[in-house]
UniProtKB/TrEMBL annotation:
PANTHER family: ANAEROBIC GLYCEROL-3-PHOSPHATE DEHYDROGENASE SUBUNIT B. The keyword Oxidoreductase applies. Keywords: Iron, Iron-sulfur, Metal-binding, Oxidoreductase. InterPro entries: 4Fe4S_Fe-S-bd (IPR017896), 4Fe4S_Fe_S_CS (IPR017900), FAD/NAD-bd_sf (IPR036188), FAD/NAD-binding_dom (IPR023753), Metab_Enz_Cyan_OpOx_G3PDH (IPR051691). PROSITE patterns: 4FE4S_FER_1, 4FE4S_FER_2. This is FAD-dependent oxidoreductase. It comes from Tractidigestivibacter montrealensis. Transmembrane segments: none annotated. Pfam families: Fer4, Pyr_redox_2. Residues 386-419, 422-452 form the 4Fe-4S ferredoxin-type domain.
Amino acid sequence: MNRTDIIVVGAGPAGMSAAIEAAKRGAHVTVFDENSRPGGQLFKQIHKFFGSKEHHAKIRGFVIGEELMEEAARLGVDVRLDSTVIGLYQDKEVVVREGEEVSHHKADAIVIATGAAENMVTFEGWTLPGVIGAGAAQTMMNLHGVRPGERVLMLGTGNVGLVVSYQLKQAGCDVVALVDAAPRVGGYGVHAAKVARTGVPFYLSHTIKRAEGTDHVTGVTIAQVDSHFQFVPGTEKHFDVDTICVAVGLSPMSQLFKMDGCKVVDDRKKGGQVPVVDDLGETSTPGIFAAGDVSGIEEASSAMIEGRIAGLAAAEYLGFIDKDEMDKAVVANDAALDGLRQGMFAPKNRGKLVTTTEEGIPVSQSLLEHGYVADDEIARFPGVTRRVGIHPVIECTQNIPCNPCQDACPKHCIKVGDHITQLPAVEANSACIGCGMCVASCPGQAIFLVDEKDEEGFADVTLPYEFLPVPAKGERGVALGRDGSPVCEAEVVSVRQTRAFDHTALLTMRVPADMAMRARFFRAGSAGAAANETSAAAATAAAE
């Protein structure tokens, strides 16, 4: 029998954060994870995080993962990989399978951070090779450098579906459509908007009717559904694809709690069956704690904070710190966690239709139904301004907990306010110097610099660009609007890539002056070719 102070099950963001906090207080911590590398979902997340400084805002997920691994190593945390916990029994005994061997371990406290598993939906042909979870696609691309397919349809418009669709585009895949049975986009509007402006269409109130092919996926047919989620006859649309990605939510992997006898409840708002926990993450069994998605589906930033709280609580439970020290640290973490649980996407708003922002501005219906803010809606948001000369245009239109744009601007042109979910606004008398730090730091890629030339007949639009190859200065192409359709010809006049931008290129394109507030993406090639490509995509979705 192997003994240690604390056992952590799961080496993802929650588990590693718990291990680090406990180890800082002097506990000996052993972490078990069934995977061949630690970090959980973080190493698949190449996008920049939302939130504030304490939430690792504007830092890419895999970088956060590397930082956690390095800190754990410095603190002497014993991380055992390829080690599957197959049992949790009384007196905090854990049974682990490592290869062909089974070993028994005992601890005085246990933190379970096993995360969640992808959900699946069934439809005709759903077992064909080529139907995969969005998380699996992300693993293939971002961990193994393998494209999941050439032409992909994404089912699901939550944050996972939106983020993975964008990453599929970055990997060179053709994402033919985003489909969701719900009548509105489920994830952050900024995630939807950055996909839509690349030309990917959204089909809300639609779902998959069947996948086609004999030994692998060769096509897919979707159809509209009514308010009872029944297919509407005559609305079928066909796409030639070789891959169908499914992003329809996650379910907590809470089986270990049941084995130990911890109280578990079925809570749909939290994603399924979850342990009953107190404010510190402690379950009904003293000394056993839960953290991260296993206790309720949220973002990785929330999981890390929950992990820190559980690690502190476990350390206090074993006497490594006193209650006053724990309480002080927990208060700071609770404040950070509360900041992430505000705004339109707060847990209390799940399943609700939020029709106005905190500022009383009507939410864009086009964004909810089509994935982009319509041209006649965008001007009502406080970050969207017009003036002669260079200035930021902030197309952040939902109350999301995020404020790195405010911190990034050296001239204080941008103000989010005291509440992290407030819509960013451009200060009226500010003097933008065009440094581009706000554009590069925005996790939602929702900030543009617009230089409206006085009486010169054109404007320069600077946008975030994260695709390869990066267009070169002088390259001509077409500017796409928020809906992904061609709006005018464009020429690249500048491309800036510096270490401070963290792999986000700042591409500046020159467009006619009347397109300054419409042009939001650059595509190489002629306007005619882009229009033909858009028409071809629409034709592919013709009704059967």
